[in-house]
From TrEMBL:
It is found in: Cell membrane. It holds the Pfam family Acyl_transf_3. It comes from Hyphococcus luteus. This is Acyltransferase 3 domain-containing protein. Residues 18-322 form the Acyltransferase domain.
Length: 341
């Protein structure tokens, strides 16, 4: 692959900490989407529904576009430093092997192999035509497929930018069932990241007023989403895939990026950046962790199943799981230093 432009290198250097912070937020909020192990009947109807709408439906589901953009943006540099075979084989080791291991764990724990067809087993591990045993790990499968196509996307962004953009946008909005990727949303935003990298000389960080405008629009989108919980007519207006794909997710993802840029130079941003060193392991493990937490919570006394405690437990579980994982790995690192591990 050809060398990256100086504009791309400068943008990557200036935004590296914001990218790491975005990764932390995206994976953490995304994990709330998969927190289904509690009985929602215990939740406070108003408080829980609003929190779920904001944290899971707004921030969590909009994290996938932002992570996809970041992945596409970074993969341009990844391919610039390696030949195609090395790039693909390295990504296979870092994406598909972990995905298979964690899917296999879930299958061993929860799958009834007696009634499983051969294709079910293949999909459970590799997500060839359907989501795998752990649904969120399909993201890694799609990233692997897009990795293989990255040189084509780079060529399209450089040589046929309009045609490539129109084709990818049409696939995203039409959402046909294709086996190249299981979710066309990831394809679209990954290619957006590639475009930003290839045309880095034409992009810049948003100004303070531009970020204020983005926050205002994102706030309006959030308020509309909350209002839809209590007004069915609003829910009908925004319930389609077109609004979700063309408005809600792109707007919220952009607002999340602006926020990451804002806090990157602050002390809080630096602490979040340091806390993110184990985010990939948290991404892999959170499904099984949440299942264990849910099973344990179900066995607690009824007095702990009230509306307030339930809602607080839902809110705290991902954060507590991430903190606990970091603590365990920190202690392990001190007992068994890297040279001894």
């Amino acid at each position: 692959m050809s060398a990256v432009s100086s504009a791309y290198s400068n943008a990557l250097g200036a935004g590296s900490q914001a990218l790491e912070i975005a990764r932390v937020f995206c994976i953490l909020f995304m994990s709330y989407v998969h927190l289904h192990f509690f009985d929602a009947g215990h939740a406070s109807p108003e408080a829980f529904l609003v929190m779920e709408a904001v944290i899971a439906d707004i921030l969590g589901r909009s994290s996938v576009p932002l992570l996809s953009v970041a992945s596409g943006f970074l993969m341009v540099r990844f391919f610039a430093r390696r030949d195609y075979k090395s790039a693909v084989s390295q990504r296979f080791r870092t994406l598909i092997i972990p995905m298979m291991i964690w899917n296999a764990l879930a299958m061993i724990l929860f799958m009834d192999f007696r009634d499983a067809a051969p294709l079910d087993l293949v999909n459970g591990l590799l997500a060839v035509t359907e989501p795998p045993a752990q649904l969120h790990l399909a993201f890694l499968r799609d990233l692997m497929a897009l990795t293989c196509l990255t040189p084509l996307f780079i060529y399209g962004a450089r040589r046929r930018p309009v045609v490539t953009a129109l084709i990818v946008a049409a696939v995203y909005l039409a959402q046909p069932k294709i086996w190249i990727v299981l979710r066309t949303q990831i394809l679209f935003f990954y290619v957006v990241g590639v475009y930003l990298a290839v045309h880095a000389d034409r992009i810049r960080f948003p100004t303070r007023w531009e970020k204020t405008g983005v926050y205002a629009v994102a706030g309006a989108v959030t308020l509309v989403q909350i209002a839809a919980l209590f007004e069915p007519r609003i829910g009908e207006l925004i319930g389609g895939a077109l609004y979700d794909n063309a408005v809600r997710r792109p707007v919220i993802a952009l607002a999340m990026w602006c926020f990451c840029v804002d806090i990157a130079p602050t002390a809080a941003g630096r602490r979040i950046h340091l806390a993110g060193k184990n985010m990939f392991l948290f991404f892999l493990a959170h499904g099984l962790i949440f299942h264990a937490v849910g099973a344990a919570y179900a066995r607690t006394p009824d007095v702990l199943h009230g509306q307030l405690i339930y809602t607080l437990a839902w809110l705290a579980t991902p954060v507590a799981a991430l903190i606990g994982l970091n603590l365990v790995l920190t202690v392990r690192g001190r007992i068994f230093p890297p040279e001894q591990a």
